[in-house]
Amino acid sequence: MPELKAAAIVLAAGKGTRMKSNLPKVMHRIGGRSLIGHVLDCLAPLGLARIVVVIAPDMDSVEKEVAPHGVAFQAEQLGTGHAVGCARDALKDFSGDVLVVYGDTPFVATATLQRMFDRRKAPDNPAIVVLGMRPTDPSGYGRLVLGPDGMLDRIVEHKDANETERAIGLANSGVMAIDGSVAWKLIERLDNRNAKGEFYLTDIVAFAREDGRRCAVVEAPHEELLGVNSRTELAAAEAMFQARRRLAAMENGATLTDPASVFFAADTKVGRDVVIGPNVQFGLGVEIGDEVEIRAFCHIEGATIASGAIIGPFARLRPGSTIGAGAHVGNFVEIKATDLGAGAKANHLTYLGDTTVGAKSNIGAGTITCNYDGFNKSRTTIGSGAFIGSDTALIAPVTVGDGAIVAAGSVITHDVPPDALAVARGEQVDKPGWATKFRAKQKSKKKD
Ligand code: UD1
Ligand code: CA
Description:
By secondary structure, this protein is of the alpha/beta class. Helices cover 19% and strands 28% of the residues.
């Protein structure tokens, strides 16, 4: 998309009282990504000149979350018009269009915002383009009052509306694109003489009309413009997000055995001919190559899985892990900050942390990398074609060379040279007949 001479103001200063949370509302997450993060993701492809997020002064976490975008502070929540006014300083050297969006409306589509900008640029040059929607129940929303020509005349808030106005099904989503050359002059004129005693951004439509300018409406489906105001709405938004992601994964050529039990993150990338079994959860930062099989009950985050790998059932991949092409990670295996080489196998009951495993190595059942001594984390390096016997403890930092074999039950405390055999366990002692004698002794004791 071409560079736009427009800036976005994201309103996020509202307290979100109904969430009953210590977190600012926009920091609650859907698919692992904050609500405000979803909004910024949607804005990103527009090529906006600037993004300013309006927050309350105590919202440090939001300021961090939206960086490098700037914030403007609204000390008191005096209304949406006042909130937009708070961003004025941050945009004082900017004269392009102003797009207003809400930080708690995570699903607005980039294409919809683009349609609004296109409408702004149409020959009739509307001063304001408002994004409208038709909810099944529009009560609570501002209503869009159209003139006989179908253009927007004014917006009336639900609380201020009369019966006729409340019967209008076309509601204000809150999203607006405003001609930059008049935006601040319109906002200066706002007052708070209304039912809520707030500075309503929506009143600028009537002002623009008074000035002889046209205002237009672009419509989008209500689902796209759902706001999150409570935990129940957050759960509903999560469900909608998941439904959409499951559909997208299947449409792009993945098989989901039981779609309803697979949970994606906002950035999960799924290749072609991937098969995902039931009860699988993805955290942020997962990339799955083609023809990967993820079996039931896996938890996967921050991991890149190359083509043809098999994961699970019951595997956990933690951040910083890469699984090589055709590698196998089996049941009750936990992998953290580890590169598992192509064709390597860790199939049973294993922990690999801060480890590099070369191609085609076999990690036996119950192998544990002891990567933490209570103070520091250390790395384990296993070469390619190595064989680690079952129930091995590798005390990091330690290296096992290419082609080396480690005997089962070993505790490996120093490096194993390539192609060597390392045995590090107590030698077996056999005492012939000892068990028979032992039993006889026990029986005679009982008779006494
Ligand atoms: C607003 C619209 C209404 C629309 C509805 C859609 C106005 C006057 N009304 O109503 O027409 O149908 O959204 O959901 O604009 N915010 C601030 N500072 C404030 C007030 C709000 O940052 O002082 C932020 C909130 O954090 C939120 C957004 O603005 O993200 C909307 O605020 P909210 O109070 O939900 O607006 P409504 O009164 O519901
Ligand atoms: Ca709201």
